[in-house]
Amino acid sequence: MSNKYLRCIWRAAFACILFACGISVASAENPERNLTVHWVNLQPEDGLIVDAVVLFFHDGSFDLYDTGSAPSSLLTRLAKHQFDGLESLIPGVKIAVMTAPHEPSPFGGTWGELSSAVTASLNPTQHRYATAYIALRPSNDAFLGNEDGYRIRLFDLGGNPELPVVVEFGGSEVMDAGICVNNEASLQFLDVTDMTAQPCQAENGVVRRHAGFNGSVRNPDATPVRILGGTSVDMGGITGVRHYDRANADFSRGGTQIGRLVFMQTGSAGSLTGSFYNPARSGEGFNIEVFHRPGSDAALTVVYFYTYEPGTGRPLWLIGSGELGQDIVMASAHGGSINSPSNPDTVVVSRWGTLRLPAASTVDWCMDGVTITYAPDDPSIPGGQYPVQRLTPRGDALEALCRQLYPPTRIY
Fold first, then answer.
1. What DSSP state is assigned to residue 155?
2. Phi, psi for residue 249 in degrees, rounded to 5
3. Which of 17, 244, 274, 349 is the most exposed place for a label (fewest CB within 10 A)?
4. What pLDDT, on the 0 to 100 scale, is given for residue 15?
């Protein structure tokens, strides 16, 4: 790396770092942008099961359903769990499917809170918006989905991401597709691991707000009371007996949360920027700034390493920039003066070595700690790993989101 490049970093102008200094990033010529979408389950183990999440990316003209109208052929296929060939029904719309994101576990209960995730490559001008269809069991045709095609906006008019986008779905939003009679007396397969279609007695063919299971708050007097009345168990599959709790499975209760969709730029685990240190090595530390170049999915960073010169103990300030998950050249500078018009011509920039931060998709970024790998050029200074933890709080909603995407109790 040339001294000219390193002086550029020391001018501390992000425009220089991104453009004039020639950081290698993905080309902006390709208009497609990669998004990762997480489904975060908020139902307890004895609550509802989400067995499919279908995402439609469109220009705002896509219409999944209209309350009070007959279900479209698309909605009918979705309710029947027929996900193949959907693109032929809606040209120009991109589709991503998560199957069984919250399925029963072979060991009892359900899988963890991070149920599933998909990645989609989108054209910001053609796929500015998203519409979700979320199938709920044990009902036949209960679903969640945004009726308003403009509700979930991912890009602005200039094609710039408006991410992350977090959309929560509650029990008050559960809809009935109007395809099967809202009577759980005929349900035979409450365990949905085999994806067997439930028996369906034709209903009135009108999409409406779901009336609730028999015995629910919204539908307390309907009979037979089966799902919420003490007989809501299944004997199928390998999970054995599964019970739907009278309260937890009643989505018509006030304040019920089903789950949330999180739309994130691929390669980003949220707000990674902050100050980091190791309590056992107090007096040293890192300041890390993470961002994206417009038109690129690459996660770029500027990192400052506050440490000491070997032997003298004098403070040493190192700075570098590059891509997360790649070696970043770190350098120090001397010879300048505070507020001097001769800077940066008198500044001498010296390469120190390399440093590597974990890629943005690494779980560590959402946890308390990050392990930084460093390799000094001086052979007398041993390289190694430097585990650090966040010193400054995020101060944003993404900290709680990280905890939900990567719960500390989850085993990897």
1. B
2. -90, 0
3. 274
4. 34
Rg (the chain; Cα; Å): 27
Which of left, alpha, beta for 117 (phi over 0: left; psi -120 to 50: alpha)? beta
- Determine contact, residues 288/273, Cβ cutoff 8 Å: yes
| Dihedral over alpha carbons 305, 309, 315, 320 (to 10 degrees) | -30
Which helix (H) or strand (E) segment holds residue 299: the answer is strand 299-308
Length of the chain: 412
pLDDT digits (tens, 9 = 90+) for 359-393: 765 555 565 568 899 999 999 989 999 988 888 76
Closest by Cα among 365, 377, 381, 382 to 325: 365
> Does the pLDDT value for residue 52 go beyond 70?
yes
Structure token digits, residue 175: 């809809």
Residue percentage of the chain with pLDDT more than 70: 70
Split at pLDDT 50, 70, 90, the class of 185 is low
| Cβ(48)–Cβ(101) below 8 Å | no
Do residues 96 and 57 make contact, with C-beta atoms less than 8 angstroms apart?
Answer: yes
* Alpha helix segments (H runs only) across 25-70: none
Number of CB atoms found within 10 A of residue 87's CB: 12
